[in-house]
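Q: For a teaching session next week I want to show students how multiple molecules come together into a single three-dimensional assembly. I've collected the sequence lines for a complex. Could you give me the predicted structure tokens for the whole thing so I can convert them for display?
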Amino acid sequence: MAKRNEATRGRLSREAIIVSAVALADAEGLDAVTIRRLAQEHGVTPMAMYWHFNDKDSLLDGLAEHLIEAVQLPEPGDAPWDQELREILDAFLAAIRPHPALAGLAMRRILAAESGLLIAERVLGLLRRGGFAPAQAAEVGTFLICSIITLAVADAVPGPPPTGEEREQALRDKRARLESLPPGRYPNVIAAAPALVVCRDEDDYFSLNLDLLVGGLHGLRRG
Amino acid sequence: MAKRNEATRGRLSREAIIVSAVALADAEGLDAVTIRRLAQEHGVTPMAMYWHFNDKDSLLDGLAEHLIEAVQLPEPGDAPWDQELREILDAFLAAIRPHPALAGLAMRRILAAESGLLIAERVLGLLRRGGFAPAQAAEVGTFLICSIITLAVADAVPGPPPTGEEREQALRDKRARLESLPPGRYPNVIAAAPALVVCRDEDDYFSLNLDLLVGGLHGLRRG
DNA sequence: ACCTGAACACCGTTCAAGT
DNA sequence: ACCTGAACACCGTTCAAGT
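A: Of course. Below is the structure for the complete assembly, covering every listed component.
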């Protein structure tokens, strides 16, 4: 389909492959990100990829790193630790939100590259300022990052994102199914049906649960 | 390899397939759960599976349902709402913990089957008792469940679980890498290295972060 | 240094056909 | 009702070879 210099002028490169992989994941989901498919988009044979990446897993490593590098870490300030932590978590979420299909890749790869290590260092430092011992900070910090990723992944349907029209229809069906449940047994599911099938406002959803996470830190016993 | 009645005496059945798929996922990870592999273990051709499941996705639906059905929902009592909620989240985590490779399947499938709807109804009911409006309860409740799943998924390495020996080695390597980082830039990562690479006690890790989640509810504005 | 050709062992899935 | 045979369009990966 794509001739050689359509996607990249000149040579094939790690960066060019990663950029097209990100676009592909955004458009059609992570399952569409395939060695063979990427090769085709660059007008190259599948084996050419193996010069730039050891295997598919290291391609995914590259995607995760690319994602994490996009995080715009705020400068350290003199705000209270919890407020500064919140800003970092906001920045992290802002960076991965546009790529829900890829966000999950970051879960087990934050400590693999420098950009992720910098984030971890900041988060751990703030938690220590908040009174957490190193091991506790590690456990809580890991969970915080994973939870943010979970927030971003939550609105990723696996496979190709459906078109607006069929998506609307699927949501209507799902909501109708919930609302036609026996009212005696499921009163709360029925009452919450609209919000269960799709949140009213994504920003509200995110900030509500970020409030929960950061607020929850204050109740924990330190030591 | 396996003769016909090794894995199942008599006929093939949905349940028998699911049970062997769970065992396979536990032993070798979700990637090993393959139509062809399962067929082989039941001494049957791959196409036989398509009589029992529409496609692979509905097999995964079945696995998720199987997992959620294992949740031992505590009886409703007269404990405070947050305490009862905590018990439900504990029960949920206890059920999915043994199957980290499968836990992720439950994320988008809780509302698909009755067992999950019952859990959702209880969680939503308790959140409403805690003062949350229906839509807010939906958003917080969804996040709570997803976070619990994240906790369980967190210690699932994709692919076949490595043997004890090579796992130990991999963890030692990872820890050594973190500890040999420049101390000027990464003091907190270095201090937390042991806990970042593997938590001392999994129960502690889980209960610490469950405390965070449930405690975080109290700080949220209701309405 | 960078890429191709040919081949291997896998996937999920369909469709017609057997009992 | 339950399963098979044959076929299709995909995967990731290796290895020797070309320029």
